[in-house]
Amino acid sequence: MTTVGILHPGSMGAAVAGQVRRSGAEVLWCPAGRSASSQARAKRYGLTPVNALGEMAERADIILSLCPPAAAEDVARDVAACSYARIYVDGNAVSPATMANISAIVQCSGATAVDGSVIGSPPSNSKNTRLYLSGPADAVALGARLFDGSAVQARLLPGGIGQASALKLSYSSYQKASRVLAAVAYALASDHGVEAELLDIAEERTTSYLAETGYLPKVAARSWRWGPEMKEAAHALEEVGLPSELAMAAGAVMDRWTGLKDVSPDLALVLDELHTSLHDELP
Predict the structure, then answer these.
(1) How far is the CA of 196 from the CAs of 90, 161, 192, 240, in angstroms?
(2) What was the pLDDT predicted at 283?
(3) What is the distance between the alpha carbons of residues 123 and 45, in angstroms, rounded to a whole number?
């Protein structure tokens, strides 16, 4: 029977750990210093308590880290300090560079790092979640096997450490920011009493802008006039005491496309123009 350690059973971690148990694996967790909510979740999903991280490191064939991204490197250091030398799956929303650091940290103790990213809501009987994995092939395959027949759909990515993390942040940079933008837009409409009309406009759309890559060249070609519009939107937000930073940032992004005014660029050029070269950054 495979033994898995989970660090730490938050709402996502506990639910994912519960799916691991469906494969017949024992799932360990460390109650020391964890909240009453964590303890309740661990009990709900049938996780096995251990006295200390060192015990988990001794017993676990695979350790899965699902914690706030700001803590991901420290958690990896704690595990490495216990001389853990098996498979360490980091499923946190960290950048590819941070994931490379985490990989180097756990490799110092002899462990094999797997890059993971969880996309979706916590898995349940009614919701499936995707877990993307990249890294050494054998370790990735073992990690994926934990979720056979569960509500976690493990998907393997080629290309090694950093690929799963890049996918996660590519998605979340849009998904999270777009929800914040929606909140700010609705607040502005509400302040002026036009929120019902805003919702009526929005409800006519049935697809995600993220899926409409063919429209991006049109956005770039129109940014010479859309950029100033975003700056005016920022002023409107400021007038009613709402945060304007996201609108200003969108305008700044569009400034990078000003050279594409009223042309028909291909997608590759549009994306290339978004990148600031080292020369551009020099004073």
Answers:
(1) 43, 46, 11, 19
(2) 46
(3) 12
Q: Look-up: residue for tokens 């790092």?
A: 113
CA contacts within 13 A on the Cβ side of 69:
15
Helices (H) and strands (E) in the chain, counts: 12, 8
pLDDT at 187 over 80: yes
End-to-end CA distance of the chain: 60
Q: Which amino acid is at 216?
A: L
- Rounded Cα distance, 178 and 234, in Å: 16
Cα(275)–Cα(65) distance, rounded to whole angstroms? 32
- What confidence score (pLDDT) does residue 277 get? 54
Distance CA 41, CA 183 (A): 30
DSSP for 70-123? Answer: GGHHHHHHHHHHTT--SEEEE-S---HHHHHHHHHHHHTTTPEEEEEEEESSPP
Give the pair of three-digit tokens for residue 165: 């993390």
Check residue 230 and give its pLDDT: 86
How far apart, in whole angstroms, are the C-alpha atoms of residue 227 and residue 35?
46
**Going by C-beta distance under 8 Å and a sequence separation of 6 or more, which residues neighbour residue 196?**
none
Here the tokens at position 36 are 């009453």
Cα–Cα distances (Å) from 256 to 4, 45, 92, 182, 225, in that order, read 47, 49, 31, 23, 12
Which tokens hold the place of 65?
Answer: 């880290």
> What single DSSP character describes residue 146?
T
